[in-house]
Amino acid sequence: MNAIALPIFIPFILIFVMVAVRNSRAAQLISVLGSTLLFVVSLYLFISLKDTKILTLNMGSWEAPFGISLVLDYFSGLMLVTASLIVLCLSVYTIYFMDDEHRNNMFYVFFFSLTMGVNGAFLTGDAFNLYVWFEVILISSFVLITLGNSKQQLEGGIKYLALNLIGSMFFLAGLGLLYGKTGTLNMAHLAHILRASEQPVLINTSAALFFMAFGIKAALFPLFFWLPASYHTANISVTSIFAGLLTKVGVYVLIRFFTLFFVQDQVFWLNLFLIIAGFTMVVGGMAASSHYDTRRILSYHIISQIGYMIMGLGIYTPLAIAGAIFFTIHNMIAKTNIFLVSGMINRSKGSFYLKDIGGLFKQSPILAILFILPAFALAGVPPLSGFFAKFILIKAGIEAGQYLIVAVAIATAMLTLYSMIKIWNEAFLKKAPESSEVEPYFKKPGFPELLPSVILGAASLLMGLFAATVFGYTMVAAEQLLVPTHYIESVLNGLNP
Prior knowledge:
By secondary structure, this protein is mostly helical. It has helices at about 5-20, 25-50, 75-95, 100-125, 125-145, 150-180, 185-195, 200-220, 225-230, 235-260, 265-290, 295-315, 320-350, 360-365, 365-380, 385-400, 405-430, 445-465, 465-480, 485-490, and strands at about 55-60, 70. It has a domain at about 265-465.
């Protein structure tokens, strides 16, 4: 099905269009229309899975494993739809929150190249092609994080680039070892070969390199320091798309690799995942509690929430994997949304620092509601999406007898709730300070500025209200991951290695 390539092809075309377009208004319109088309195509592809369950495309008509395969299953389909929704909302948001100097050329070019890289990573069925998409993401994100050329941005960008380049080195080394052992980098072919391997020690050397690579990119403990050092330096539009997409690509690959072909030494790896998940949750949650800059608080909570996703992988039951996928989708939406709201708070009050702002509840009740939706979703308050995501993971942990990680997850939820209440009290309930470094003022946000947050807030609410439907999709995705026979057969088309 050739349409599988469209989520990569659409942003690819938009890159060239944005290079040519110099009019700011035209760039804004093209960005919104292109993102809308991308979302519609992604939704259509996901709906198409209902009959076939898995869609494949061999690029250049080269049969797998000799050519590059694009594969769409329920896991990649859910991630693709969620990412496309976020890109659409960001296209609208940047109209009001990205400065004119960068919006119509450099920003949109690298915004859509980042989108292309993310979609490529979700769709590829080839491990080396995945490395290429990761490099596209890395280059694009480095340019975006340094737009503005301030000293703070350059410092954050260098930290971001340096540690992620180390991750890329681990990735490339892992690919070399894996190819040397198997003679292939097609992921279905790797699964066909490695799932029957009786040499787990040899495979573990490659698995360890990939774990380091994706641990850095997913911001797992103790490899997360690049994230809080860099995310708060960029324009809030850039930080929002980073929060929603970048670390989740790393999580996606960890789940994909360690359910598809790194399955030889599960006792070691699953215990390691649970330990890492616990430390990631606690350290991220505690660090967030100590800050008063909303961007830093939310950046540390990105780290904390990643722990829940890896917790599901570590428990490794169908319910746990389904919970991890549910949680990932929920977090992509809610985390992007709360960064959008923090940008509106900054626009309204002139600061991200909680001590300098206040009184927003009376000044803008709609902004207060828009904050509550993602904040309570992240904290796990019913009936929002985060409650059901955490409930599924905790239920899976109890059923598997993993009581310690369940206790850590519940404690981390309390830390998240504490941070969200702190932002609520400081920004919305307390009176605005009469004297501060920031001149007290209030700029009421208009509806077009609020619209992206309204859409994402509604998505979090609907995910909670229709949790059973979403859970049904994530359960199918989990079953496809844990029993990948159909995936392997669909890609290899009966090929014997």
